[in-house]
Design goal:
By secondary structure, the chain is mainly alpha-helical. The radius of gyration is 17 Å and the shape is globular.
């Protein structure tokens, strides 16, 4: 199969006109993997697997019990909490975007002042504290 971009998957899907073809499409690894939950996805990332949970919790600034509820899937994290986790783990923009999508939160919007600053922080691999300082410097609300 071609490169597994959403565009390529959309092309394949646009030509499906039978239940059998649909079932085959639903079994493609690119489609199956796209339905992971946020905790599954987040914990599958190499940067997260290499980090000790205690360090991740401390670096993110989240409460320990809240973190474990999110990772068990019993609590849905808000956008800022997901961003805190992504920054603490040192995720790149693609990984952060996918984490936001899977958690049911809006992705970083390139026309929002706050989101522009957050995007640059992610690209710079800034930690949560440095990101909040950057947000403060530009007069926008820090991560909650």
């Amino acid at each position: 199969m071609e490169e597994s971009t959403t565009g390529n998957l959309a092309k394949i899907l646009s030509n499906i006109d039978s239940a059998r073809e649909m079932e085959e499409y639903l079994e493609l690894p690119e489609v199956v993997n796209s339905w992971q939950s946020f905790p599954e996805y987040f914990q599958s990332l190499e940067a997260v697997r290499e980090m000790d949970s205690r360090n991740l919790i401390r670096s993110s600034g989240l409460e320990r019990s809240y973190y474990y509820q999110v990772m068990k899937g019993t609590r849905r994290p808000g956008r800022d909490k997901v961003l805190r986790l992504c920054l603490a783990a040192g995720l790149n923009l693609k990984e952060t975007t996918r984490a936001l999508e899977l958690s049911g939160n809006a992705v970083l919007y390139p026309r929002s002042r706050r989101d522009i600053i957050l995007t640059v922080a992610v690209n710079q691999m800034a930690d949560v504290d440095d990101t909040n300082l950057l947000l403060f410097k530009y007069g926008v609300k820090p991560l909650e």
